[in-house]
Fold this sequence. Notes:
The structure holds three protein chains of three kinds. By secondary structure, chain B is an alpha/beta fold.
Amino acid sequence: MSHLATTDAPATPEPAPAPAPAKSAPKMTADTGRVFNVFSHGFLFIWGALVTIPLIWAVIQSFKTDTEIINDPLGLPDQWLWGAFGRAWTKGHIGEFFFNTVLVLIGGVGLTMLLGSMAAYVLARYPFRGNRAVYWMFVAGLTMPIYLGILPLYLTVDNVANALGLGEVIGLSTHLGLILVYVAYSLPFTVFFLHAFFRTLPSSIAEAASVDGAGHVRLFFQVMMPMAKPGLIGIGIFNVIGQWNQFILPTVIMKDEDKRLLTQGLLELATNARYETDFARLFAGMTLAMLPILAVYLIFHRQVQSGLTGATLK
Amino acid sequence: MTVTPDSPSELNRRTVLRRAAAVGLLAAPAISALAACASEDGEGGTTGEKTEANPFGVGDKQPLEVAFFNGGFGEDYAKFDVAAYEAKWAGSKVELKFSKTILTDYQPRFYGGNPPDVLNNSSPETIPVGPVVQGGQLVDLTALLDAPSYDDPKVKVRDTLVAGVVEEGTFNGKMYTLNYAYSIYGHWYDEALFQKEGWTVPKTWEEFSTLAEAAKKKGIAAYTFQGIHPWYIHNVITEWIYKVGGKEAILKIDNLEPDAWKQDAVKVAAERIAEMASKGWIQAGASGLDHTTTQQAVIDGKALFIWCGSWLEGEMAKTLPATVKLAVAPPWDLSSADKAKYGTVHAAPGEGFIVPTKAKNPAGGQEFLRMMLGKEQARKFAELTKSLPVVKGAADGLTISSALSSASKVAAAAPEVINWRYAGWYVPLQNAVFAAATELAAGKSTPAAFQAAVQKAADEVAKDDKIVKQKAS
Amino acid sequence: MSFGRARFITGFLFAPILLYAVYVLYPYAQTAYYSVTDFSGFSPDYAYVGFGNYVELFADDVFLRALGHNVVVLTVYPVVTILLALFFAFMLNVGGRGDKAGVRGVRGSSVYKFIFFFPQVLSIAIVAVIWRRVFQSNDGGMINSLLMKLGLVEKDKPLLFLAESDSVFPPIHLGDFTFEAPVVLVCLILIAIWGGVGFYLILFSAAMQSIPKDIFEAATLDGATRVQTFFRVTLPLLREHVSVAWVYLGIAALDFYALVVGMTPGPGGGGPNDASQVMSSYMMSNAFRPSRFDSFAFACAMGVSIAILTLLFAAAQMRLTRSRDKLEF
C-alpha cells in the first residue's frame, strides 16, 4: 500500500540510538547546526510554554478566592485554599460524572473495536457483491456532522428501546443506550481506518492458517487480530479521544442528572457559575477533570504514540 | 381519533405502534402523532370529579411530572411546591426535574410527544411559544384564570394576579404562559458608594454626564453592561426608546410599522449609548465580559450602574459584601422632551410556566399552577428567592432584602410602568437588536448604522408570512 | 465452504450495519426528509414544501457570511496546523545534532511530544472554559492582564479578542458574499491549532521514524543542510500523510461547532454581530432558537448542505492529492 510500509518491525516510539560509529559531519554543517539547534529549541520551548501555561494558570486559579481571581488574575493566591475542590466534588458531582464517563468509554470503545474490526476485516478481505457499497456507506458517514441527525436520533433511541421492551436497558438516559450510539457514530472512521490496515496484512499467513483448517472466525480472532494489533491500538486511541471529548450525543441522550457525563457536567459547572458566582469551583472542577486524564496519559503516552505510529504505517 | 378510553387496548395499540416504528414501517413523527392521540385519550382516564375544590378534576394517585428551571431562583421553592402538592393529592407521586437548559432538554420531549405536565419555560434558551402554539401543543390557561383561587373559592385565580400577567402570557389572543415572578428592572448601583462619595443618583442626562466625568477621574466607569449576553443591552436601548418616545413610539415598534426604527426616539436612545461608549464611560472591555463579571464590577466599585432585573441580589449573593448596598434607579431623562416622565419603571412578569397538551396529566399540571398561585406558596417563593411573585400582596409584611424593597419602592412610585412585546414575538428582530445594540455599546458602530440594521430586520419580519403577526395596543 | 463463507460475512457484518443504519443513517435520512418540509421540530404536523428551504438558504445573508467564515477556517487552520506539526516533527525526529549518534531528534523530544499532545486529551468543555478566561476582554483576562503589566496595552483599552468583530484585513465583498476574518474567528482558529498540532505532530513523527535513517544520513553526508533535507527528503516521503491530515483537518474546519458554541458571545454563540458564525452554529441556532415555525426544517436544509459540501471537499481533496494505485479505500 503505502511505500512507507516497507519496514517490518513497528517503529519504536523513541528514536533508537544508532549503533553506527560516529560520523564526522562536515564542520560547516556543525556550525549552522548549532544555530539551528538554538532556533529549533527556542520554537519547541515556546510552543511547549503556550500549551502548558493556560493549563497551569487554570489550576492555580482553583486555589484562589473569587476576589483574587477577578482582581489579580496573574498572581499566586495569598493562601492556597483547597475548599473549591471539595465544592466541585460534592456540589459539582465531578466524581459521579467521571464514573459515568469511564463506564461509557470502556463499553463504547470496546464494542467499537470489536464490531469495527469485524466489519473492516470482512470488507477488506472478502470480496462479495455489494462489498464496495457497504464500504462506501460507512465511509460517507465520515463527512456527516453528528448534529445533523440529533433530534431524530433522540426519538430513534427511545422508540427502538421501547419496541424491544428494553427501555431501561438501551433507552434514553441509560449507559448501554449511549454506548450503542457511540459505537454507531464511531464505526465510519474505525471501518475506514482498519479496512486499510487489514488490506496490508500478508495473505500468505491467512492462507496457511486456512489450509490448517482454521475456520473464518478462528482465523480472524487468532491470526488476523493479533497481526493487526498496531492498527487496533491506533484506532483505539482515536476512539478513546473522540468518545472522551464527545459532548453533543450525551447532551441529547443522557437526560437524568445522575447519568450525566463529564463534558456535560463541566459545561454545567460553567453555566452554573452564571447563576451563583463561584469561579474557584469552576477552575477546581476543571482541574479535577484534567488530573485523571493526565495520569492515564502519563502512564500510556508511549503506547498512545506508538499506537499512532503503527496506525500510520497502514 | 375516537377511541374509547380503555387502558388495555390503548396499551396494545401503543405497543403495536412502537413495534411498527422499530421496523421502520412508520416515519417517526407519524408515530408520535398517533402516540400523542393515545395519551390524549389517557386524559379521559382522569378519575377525579370536577368540583369547586378540584376544578380540573385531578385524580388521586395520578403521577405528575414537573420540570423546573434551575437558575437564579434556585431549587428550594420548587421542592416546597412539590411537597405541598404531594401532601394534598395523597398518593400522587410527583417527579420533579431540574434543568439549566430547558430548550435542549425538553424540545425532544415535545417532538417525541411525551412532554412533562408542567414546564418552567425559562432560561437563556426557552421553548419558543409561537411554533408550539401553532402546533396546538400548549394548554390554553384561560380555564386556570377562571378557576376558583386556591385560598378563596369565591375569588377567581385571575383576580389574585397583579396587572400585566395575562397580557404578558398571551399569544394569538389566549394565555398560554403563566409568568410567575414579577421582575422590576432598572439601573442598579451601590448606594453605599454614592453616599461615601457624596454623589446623587442622576435624574437627567446632564446630571449623568457630570457624574460620569467625576467617576472617570476616580478611575470608575459610569456604566457597564453584561456584554456577551446581549439580552441585557437590548433591554436598555428599548427602555430608553420608550423613555424618549413614550408608549406611542414602542407601539410602532411592536406593531412593525414602517420606519418604526427610524423614529427620533430611537435615534436619541442610540445616540446616548454611542456617546457613553465614545466618551469612555462604559467599563473597558464590557462587550466581551459575562454578566457575573460585569455585575461584580458594580459591587466592587469599578462601575457605577448596570441594568438588571430585581433578581440581581440573589444572583450575586455569594460575592456581595455586607458593606455594599444595592439599589435601583429608574432611567434618567435622556432628552429635555422625553415623553415618559422621570420615574417611569420597566417591570414585567417573567419566569414562565406552561402546560403541554400532550402531557399525561395536564389537569394535574394546571392544578399545580393553581396551587403555586396560592398565598402560602407565593409567600414562600418571595421568602426563598427574594423576588416578588405575581400574586397580589404575597410579600406583604415580609421582611425582604434592601435591594428588593428598593425595587418595590421605585415601582410603587412610578408614574408609568412600561413594557414592550416585540422581543418575545419576533426572534429575528430581537436578534438584530441584540447584535446592533452590542456593537453600539462597544463603540464599534453608529446610531445611524444601528437604526438601519434593525429597521432592515423589522422589514424582513414584516414581510415574512411564515412569522405570525401579533397586535400590541 | 462457500456457504460457511457467506454465513461468516453476514454474521460479521450484521451487527455493525444494523447499529449504523438505525442510529446514524436513519436519523440522517429523516433530517434530509425534513429539509423539504415545513417541520417545526416541536409539532408532529408538517407539510411537504419542496426545495424552498434550500432556495432561501442561499439567499440568507447570515448563512453566506457563515459560509465565508468556514472558508477562512478551511484555508488557515489546516495549513498552519500541518506546517507547525511538520516543523516540530522534523525538529523532534531528525532536527537534532547530527554528530556522534548519527541523525536523531533534539534532546528532550519525548517530553516535548508528551506536552504537545496533551491538549488533545482535554475535553472541549475544559478547553473552552479555560480559553474564555485567557482571552477575557478586561484586566481579569490572562493575556490582557499580562500585556497591561508589560505596558503594551492600556488599562482602559483592553483587547477584545472574542468580542472583536473587526476583520484582521479589510473585508472583501463579492456580491452577496463577504470574505473577512474577524478577530474572534482568528482567536478560535488559534485555539484549534493549539489543540490540534500535537496530534498531527505525533502522526508525522511516526511517519518520519519509519523513513530509514540512512536516507537522512546519506543526505547529510552529501552536505545537505537540514532545511534542504526537510524539503527534498522528508516532505516528499510524507506526502500521503499530509494529505490524510488535510482531509481530517478540512472536515474539522467545516464543522467548528464546539468552539463557536462554547466560546463566543450571544445566544448560541456566533457573535458578536455574527462575526464568528459558521454554518454549523447557524444551523444549530436555527434548530434550537427558532424564529419562525419552520426554522427547524430550514436548519435541516442547512445540515444537508454542510454534509454535501464536506463530502465534495473530501472527494476533491482525495482526487487532488492521491494517486489511486497507491492508496485505495
